[in-house]
Give the backbone structure.
Amino acid sequence: KGSQVQRITKDFDVNIKFPDKNDNGDAPPDPERSSNPNIIRITGKKTNCEGAADALKKLVPVTAEFIVPFEFHRYIIGQKGKEVREMMNEFDVNIRVPAADQESDIILISGVP
């Protein structure tokens, strides 16, 4: 994802600063970075910043829940996970099928819209 953020920085002629991770030891906090983990700081011309913000939002993955009866999960997973891996690669998503002992009908699919 870093290369996509770099492309947005270049395309919109802005600076993008992600929040501090708070693992910098004794170093003082960077004033250009937010200490709030939910804030990404974008600086530049207002219209460029708005465009960069929209482009960044498109990189945020979403997760959807699908109800699939537990007895069909094995067909989605396939032999040794082959089917689920093929779907994840083809559609560039992450598919989380619950463990067999949970017997849950909910499958989670995450990806970038």
